[in-house]
Amino acid sequence: MSLPIPTHVRYELLRPAQAVARRQECPVAYLPAGTLEWHGEHNPLGLDAVKAHRLCCVLADRLGGLAMPPLWYGDNRDDICEIVFGPQRIASVEKDHSPLIAEKMGLPAGTFQAGGVRNGVRDSWEFFSELVERTLYQMRTLGFEATVVLTGHYPEHGPAQAAADRFAAYGQMKTLVVMEHSLLLEQGYQGDHAAKWETSLMLALSDGLVDLGALSDDRGEPNLGVLGVDPRGTASAEYGLEAIEALVKAVRAKVGQLLAGTP
User: What three-state secondary structure class fits 147?
Assistant: First the structure.
């Protein structure tokens, strides 16, 4: 059973009076960020942003405020699964999954690699960081007193935090940058890539987007481009819902601190 995703908190779907009413009641914006990247054969390619956006909708519904449209683009394409999923970048991975991932995508591996090199030479994460900073200015002009940036693609967290730090110098709006698991580490939750954690969240947040049957029945065969606890036999909507409840509680406390102006 997946969690219904509310639409009445989605800023882009609301008429002006509706958005103003919610903002005046709770002047908090939830800004999701993600990317387009392989997340196993069982998950959608847009998992990071879909996950972050739907979590932001749940948070806005439960805690007040508004969920903004996700930032899909502008990331460093030299830091995606199609390029880096091998022992040269991930010590726990025994063989390079990237060439086979590219094959499954129906593209030559060199296409992804060339894009990554081009991005790395030109700006790496600088463009994304600037995009987040400019978006924070936009949130301030829209009347919000605090923005929670939820980075569903974990490598985006550092660049987003750098943007928030630059923005903080102007003292116009409080900003919190988090990954969905980063507030829950003391409770034993751990982020991953398309494994138990992310797959469970997607099972809890969506109907029909996850197909665990797409994974091999051979437990001795590693899942392609999956990093973390094997989702076969461990991932469940129930686990995802449990984690979401913990996240809501943790963010509630942080948002209260933001609006009160306490660290």
Answer: strand
pTM passes above 0.85: yes
CA dihedral sign of residues 137, 154, 35, 229: negative
The set of residues, in sequence order, having a beta carbon less than 8 Å from that of 172 and lying 6+ positions away, is: 140
Residue 188 makes CB contacts below 8 A (sequence gap 6+) with none
Task: Count other C-beta atoms under 10 Å from residue 24's C-beta.
Answer: 9
Token pair recorded at residue 145: 């007193």
Sorted by where each begins, the domain ranges of the chain are 11-74+126-260, 76-124
Report how far residue 116's alpha carbon sits from residue 77's, in angstroms, rounded to the nearest whole number: 5
* Residue 72 CB neighbour total at 10 angstroms: 17
Angle made by CA atoms 41, 124, 102, in degrees to the nearest 5 = 25
Q: Which residue is listed with tokens 């550092």?
A: 158
Looking up tokens 């003391």, which residue turns up? 186
- pLDDT truncated to tens, each residue of the chain (263 aa)? 789 999 999 999 999 999 999 999 999 999 999 999 999 999 999 999 999 999 999 999 999 999 999 999 999 888 888 888 889 888 888 899 999 999 999 988 877 776 666 666 566 899 999 999 999 999 999 999 999 999 999 999 999 999 999 999 887 899 999 999 999 999 999 999 999 999 999 999 998 999 999 999 888 788 999 999 999 999 999 999 999 999 999 999 999 999 988 66
CATH of domain 11-74+126-260: 3.40.50.10310
φ/ψ region of 143 (left if φ > 0, alpha if ψ in -120 to 50, else beta) reads left
Dmax (CA) of the chain: 56
3-state SS, residue 178: strand
